Amino acid sequence: MYIVELSFDDSPERLAVRPAHRQKLSDLREQGKVLNAGPFADGSGAVVVFDVETEDEVRAHMADDVYYSTAGVTVASVREWTPLFD
């Protein structure tokens, strides 16, 4: 499992592509590839929890979603995570 942490700035480009990004996340959730995702309450960024085996899989899903390379979105970290609870 991997956690992707994003940070945001005020760039309007991010908001323009956000609906398509959220649809991709919904599709990945239906496929069992995303466990959960959502923004921080203060709007400074977000977290996406990928339920995949390798970082390469995470990077491939990110490459398929323009949101991750859009102005206003910075990938702060991609980290492997071992949850304590299912």
TrEMBL record:
<feature type="domain" description="YCII-related">
    <location>
        <begin position="12"/>
        <end position="82"/>
    </location>
</feature>
<dbReference type="InterPro" id="IPR011008">
    <property type="entry name" value="Dimeric_a/b-barrel"/>
</dbReference>
<comment type="similarity">
    <text>Belongs to the YciI family.</text>
</comment>
<protein>
    <recommendedName>
        <fullName>YCII-related domain-containing protein</fullName>
    </recommendedName>
</protein>
<dbReference type="Pfam" id="PF03795">
    <property type="entry name" value="YCII"/>
</dbReference>
<dbReference type="InterPro" id="IPR005545">
    <property type="entry name" value="YCII"/>
</dbReference>
<dbReference type="InterPro" id="IPR051807">
    <property type="entry name" value="Sec-metab_biosynth-assoc"/>
</dbReference>
